[in-house]
Amino acid sequence: MYGPVAGPAEAVEANMAQRVTAVDEYLAGLPDEAREVMAELRRTVLAVVPDAGERISYGMPTFTLDGRSLVHLAAWKRHAGLYPLPRLDPDLEREVAPYRGAKDAMQLRYDRPVPYDLVGRVVAVLADRCAGQRLP
Question: Which residues contact residue 49 at a Cβ distance below 8 angstroms, ignoring those fewer than 6 apart?
Answer without folding.
Answer: 63, 65, 70, 123, 124, 127
